[in-house]
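Our preliminary data section would be incomplete without showing what the modeling component actually yields. Below, a chain of 256 amino acids is followed by its predicted structure, encoded as tokens that our downstream tools consume directly.
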Amino acid sequence: MVETKRQEPRLAAAGDEKRFLGDLEKYCRIVTELGGVDVRVVTPQDIVQNIRPRLTCIFGHCPSLGTSYFCPPNWDFPWEYQKEILNSYQHIIIYRIPYEKENLACYTGPAGSNQLEGYIYQYKSHWTDEEVQYWLDMMKKYTAPMSAVRAKNIGRIIESTARKDGYYFAFTGFQGSCSQHKCTKFGAHCIFITGGICRFPCEVRPDGAGAMNIDFMRTNARMGWKSWTGGWSALPEYFPEDVEEYLYHTAIVYID
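Predicted structure:
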């Protein structure tokens, strides 16, 4: 009988700066190969946290409000903990995913959440028949987004790769609710709220703005990137002609 040696998990060697820098370069290259642009490595001091994004989630009538455990008001992580978590990392990979101008409805408007059908299912009992028909017509008129979903997938790939390389606290953060792209297609709220079980435990992450209070607008400005605020009622036809330079989805990965 041949005796096999159990392979120990690889741990990041403390103080091995050469290897660490090489790994960071590898992760940035993977992001670029998967469609990310403007990839860079920054420090926590470059990421702007602001307690006020939570207000826009709760009082900005975000359609995801209350539909996910990982968004306000269900995710009630103390502000002090959020700041401590961010500052516990030494390096952060930040990147952007571009939207196509021809498919501006991916970026903004009621179909920009990718799951308008799920929202109609959730809220139709509170709407008149005319209102339900209005949103059904909206769903037919505007197409669904892919960029936000792609940014989330890239982040999970980098997170998984980094953990295998020994950076076991690697963690990705998104801009947007997981319920927008996952649970609303089932026509139901997040079952974690009532049952304590997530449908997609390996895929969901807390919303960077509402759950971790990251101010993406100011963070983008600090990176030298232009931003434009989209939203449920900001229809594509409201946007200027030169809008393509603003159409990006920002995502981050914490590495340590």
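Confidence is low (pLDDT under 50) at residues 1-9. The helical segments are 17-33, 53-59, 79-87, 116-123, 129-141, 147-164, 191-195, 216-223. Preliminary results of this kind motivate Aim 1 of the renewal.
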